[in-house]
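Structure, all two chains, one model.
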Amino acid sequence: MSSSTNSPTHHTSTIGAIGAPSRRNTELALLLFAVVIPVFAYANVGLAIDGKVPTGLLSYGLGLGLLAGVAHLGVRKFAPYADPLLLPLATLLNGLGLVVIWRLDQSKLLQSIGQAGNAAPRQLLYTALGIAFFVVVLIFLKDHRVLQRYTYISMFAALVLLLLPLVPGLGANIYGAKIWIKIPGLGSLQPGEFAKIVLAIFFAGYLMVKRDALALASRRFMGLYLPRGRDLGPILVVWFISILILVFETDLGTSLLFFGMFIIMLYVATERTSWIVFGLLMSAAGAVGVATFEPHVQQRVQAWLDPMKEYKLSQQGVGGHSEQSMQALWAFGSGGTLGTGLGQGHSDLIRFAANSDFILATFGEELGLAGIMAILLIYGLIVERGVRTALAARDPFGKLLAVGLSGAFALQVFVVAGGVMGLIPLTGMTMPFMAYGGSSVLANWALIGILIRISDTARRPAPAPAPSPDAEMTQVVRPS
Amino acid sequence: MSELTLTVMRLGFLAVLWLFVIVAVQVIRSDLFGTRVTQRGSRREAGRPQQQAARQAAPPQQRQQQSGGGGRRGRNAPTKLVVSEGILTGTTVALQGQTITLGRAHDSTIVLDDDYASSRHARIYPDRDGQWIVEDLGSTNGTYLDRSRLTTPTPIPLGAPIRIGKTVIELRK
């Protein structure tokens, strides 16, 4: 009967259930947009460098479009209620990264020193593998709560992944940081990128079980809740491991990333501000402590405090100094507000790692402040969608995992962007999705895959509650 | 390539990049979801203009007659239905000439969560004179007006209790 819909009761509002539509068509439209922008950039670079539209434009556009289409179909089939923004945002960043890597490939300077030349086709291959991995995650991870079963296995796996580069014969010391492993015949791999995801699974599973003990058993002291000594155990262990990474692998970024991720998840699990205070104090103490005796870290700090001096020393030919920090700052400076235009900058002067760690400097020079802001906003939006997923998730494990993954992503962007821009000491990490590197692309697509899986579960309409009372029999009043 | 083309492309690219960000934020804005609050009041407001228009269209004399002659706007005509016993105690429904259905079915005007009520238990509707009538719809346990079980559609006196299962409703001014 229709009378129920227009019945004017005095309670003027009803509160209904969450009714999020699937939004797949929105995703498709945004995805098209996200493919068109890199194609535009690609044409722009070709016109600026060679004066003509690059010959590979069609195949590049079709390639990226095809990959995005496969990812979209995967989401449509296996995660129909997932967040509509995560995939387009990641695709755009990946596409822009590909264009700038290709643009650096065209640089005669980089070609002459063997730093570039064929990076873009390989990156396209990595992207294809990454998207395949993304779809595989969606297919095989039907429910993210399955990961909860592997809490302690994840811990073990993460430790193994982190320690692999230290194994003699397997690890490779490339440019002062021992974060790669060499797989014969396949190239090198950065296990730290994958450890990030696996560790987030462990932290989420562990904190879900222990959060009450960590949150409630505490004493109040000067406005802060001090946890009991034994509850401090895990945080001390994680801190110690991250210090060990810093000392033995001389990888500032990874150790900061892991410790920061743990603190973020601890704070989210317990709602205690004291953990953040503790975390900041402990990371400061650890960083200062290690910096006093580790020359690699010391040098990074020196380059951060006085990049110009570092640059001069490097120009004078004093060994062990790097001119990159200063060059990156110059690149940002010469870009100005609106940039020099794609393909028209000189960021290839940052010879070494111009297309990986320092790719943001090229963006800064050629797109200017306006472009960098847009790109950082896109990263910010990915993190926002991750946190939004955590808010919408119904199970505590999913909440913690989504927060951990998006927190790790945010920290990584902060550490890399801050390092390149001179806000914090430079660390050897890659800009997610943009920088050249197979491990990073693969791991970050897997990360987006897990976030999409959690958001699909979170936004799926709740199953129909109780069976309809219409179906039940009416009880008959029996006069007693 | 001319300088002008490149400048236009440079600025155009930045514009497109920002357009993407803005579109993405718009999607977020349209994507905010949570509990959906439906304003029933607004529907009532939406329904009113028609009534008012109809009333205004009617000649004033007729309107006088209608309101004076024991119509639904009459002095002793009930204006609301009140649940006085049962789980829904305190619920009121304004009487505006529409049929009110009672029962356990989801689409009833008043959904009774009561094991002793049938899914379509009874209905209350105004007849041509504006007098409110209660009719039992073949319920299992019956509908009672005061103490007597209803067998035929019966006019409802003001304030008389209508009992359905554990729920008692009455009409009030």
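Residues 41-73 of chain B have pLDDT under 50 and may be disordered.
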